[in-house]
Amino acid sequence: MTEEDKTEKIKGSLDGLHIALQHKLPVRHHASIDKAVGNLRRVRQARNIMQHGVTTDGGLTAKLRQIGIHDAPPNWEGAWNAIRAQTADALGAIRNELRSALDGA
Is residue 53 domain-resident? Predict the structure, then answer.
């Protein structure tokens, strides 16, 4: 695969991050990285639905349920706290995998 082919597959910053982490980290770190990036993608998708008013596939309520939020609306404060916690957990998992890989190098 050429560099051009690789670049073509990267469609956004999360794709770029995911590909870089998969390429640079040993296989034992991949499952945690996959889960963390997947969580970040779901949060981003919910944000995009809200920002752009997407109503297909159940819209915002369906996407929030996919990330474990079942009471928004009307509990937007709780939804925000859950999204914030999931985002922080995903970023923390990525940080931990990077730290673990560097410590094991």
Answer: yes
In a domain, residue 70? The reply is: yes
Considering its fold, how many domains does the chain have in total?
Answer: 1
| pLDDT one-digit tens code per residue, 28-38 | 999 999 999 99
Alpha carbon distance 24, 97 (integer Å): 11
C-alpha–C-alpha distance, residues 60 and 29, integer Å = 31
Its pTM stands at 0.80
Do 43 and 87 touch, CB atoms closer than 8 A?
yes
Question: pLDDT tens for residues 56-100?
Answer: 778 888 889 988 999 877 888 999 999 999 999 999 999 999 999
Confirm whether 73 is domain-assigned: yes
